[in-house]
């Protein structure tokens, strides 16, 4: 059976070091001559991404449902090209993915209501059937530590109490991904030195670089009975 490229995602709170680590990893892969591609979500360069960018910078206001669907659409814009790249043997690395979609939207609160405006299941629905990652590396960091890092607080969600809630939802997502037994969710300490985190990431990614014959799966298809990653991507 033909080998395909592996699909790797890096997730984490704001200022957890994701983008730095994603860039270091892609450089390492390219130095090692492993066909690879980095995709960053949200991709702020597309027409949909420009609406998201303006919202994140608080230059515009959008209904919570609308912005959630825009983030998802921003991933669907490139879903078929991710599949094509994987099938061509390219390792695809995403800096954030659908997991951020759930964690940031489901963490929202309204001052006048005890109920979150967007339910967890509602937040997951638009991303059902996206290509599923083989490995998700979650860079864990305490919000109070993230806050001390440069640039924190510039954008809409960069507030310590928001990040606390986001972290709790990421925990739930990780447990569900792991218990479904398809695709790995690995928690790494994002509070360590940059070089140490780089080493741990490389130790996990290197074995994947020879490719895989496993079919590309669909994210959260047939969610009943906790079967999060079930259908084949064919
Ligand atoms: P970044 O460019 O990685 O700093 O991400 C920008 C911000 O957008 C960050 O606070 C996390 C948030 N974010 C990323 N993806 C999503 C998503 O799909 N939905 C929502 N609501 N927020 C997201």
From TrEMBL:
What pathway does the annotation place this protein in? Pyrimidine metabolism; dTTP biosynthesis
Q: Which residues form the Thymidylate kinase-like domain?
A: 10-201
The answer to whether UniProt assigns keyword Repeat to this entry is no
List where the protein spans the membrane. none
GO molecular function terms attached to this record: ATP binding; dTMP kinase activity; nucleoside diphosphate kinase activity
Positions the record marks as coiled coil are none
What EC number(s) does the entry state?
A: 2.7.4.9
Principal EC category: transferase
Keyword list, A-Z: ATP-binding, Kinase, Nucleotide biosynthesis, Nucleotide-binding, Transferase
- GO process terms (BP): dTDP biosynthetic process; dTTP biosynthetic process; dUDP biosynthetic process
Question: Can you list the GO cellular component terms from the UniProt entry?
Answer: cytosol; nucleus
Question: What PANTHER family does the entry give?
Answer: THYMIDYLATE KINASE (PTHR10344:SF1)
Alphabetical list of HAMAP family matching this protein = Thymidylate_kinase
The similarity comment for this entry is:
Belongs to the thymidylate kinase family.
State what protein this is by name: Thymidylate kinase
